[in-house]
Amino acid sequence: MIGYRFTKYLKEAESTANFENLLKIFSELLIITSGNTGEALSWMTNLDKKFNLTDENYGMGDFIEDLKKKGYLSENIETGKLEVTSKGEQFIRKQALEEIFGKLRKSGRGEHKTFLNGQGDEPGSERRNFEFGDPVNSISMTDSLHNAYVNHGLENFTITESDLEVVENEFKTQTSTVLMIDISHSMILYGEDRITPAKKVAMALAELITRKYKKDTLDIIVFGNDAWQIEIKDLPYLTVGPYHTNTIAGLELAMDILRKRKNPNKQVFMITDGKPTCMKVGIKYYKNAFGLDPKILNQTLNLARQCRKLQIPITTFMIATDPWLKEFVKEFTMANNGNAYYSGLNGLGNLVFEDYKRNKRKKF
After folding, report:
1. Residues 354 and 241 in one domain
2. Pairing mode, if any, of strands 122-129 and 284-287?
3. Residue range 222-226: mean pLDDT, rounded
4. Structure pTM?
């Protein structure tokens, strides 16, 4: 007769490494290295040697293979190099969103609303008495029946016009935002990496709008000696150049983009760490990195006033606290009637989001 043989239970060794945790670290390194996959993996290997990110059951080779199998990396057939896929880029944006805005309370349908009531298409929480001309489908039957019962009793139940209540609707707003990112050389000077937090904020804002506020638009501009528009997918690969700060070119491009947008609410967010030091005169560049040049300053302030006339508020996020820079930002903000924040790198994301949400409640 065959019976059962009992032996001592030996628990299988579990890997301390976790793909999801390693992926988060790899995503962070990709942002810092501007999307250079080889450099990011090299840094990660050094971190693994120092802090034992992997173990004998799951090594860096296994992690790289999983990155390819799960579709985060692909191998370029011509060069043989590993490249970030669209899925990998989306994960980086998602990771930035969770890092910066993860603690904020999620809302239900994710639509922006003003504080104005009227013939909108989003039901609100407020109730009011029925008035002549109100559509029938706006009547709150539950509240109206309750009023009729209280006012007339159940035995002689009747409902009159005075018992009717309607649901107040709220106007939804659509906003077109241009985000300007300074990529002048000062964004990496003095041993402080300012461009990486700026990229994170841009990616988080892009992911937020793409997921939650799909009727809004976000255009991203970078400005150095010149200004040009970039795609959201290009953000992880953004680098700082040997540039001066041509704020004028950035504002001109932002205004051109917003003129084409049909949304009534338009705004510009500008992330910078310094004063304007460059402008283009004809085909040549006029530059002055020493102090505030009156020629450059006056043209910058003129554009701020033009934006004000076009009802385009500019919110400046200054990653610096120098007194004379504050004076420039103050003058620029007064010319535009916009907003200004003097932010450290850690609090930049929350400031951008809060101002974005606050401006959505305004009717520019």
Report:
1. yes
2. unpaired
3. 97
4. 0.73
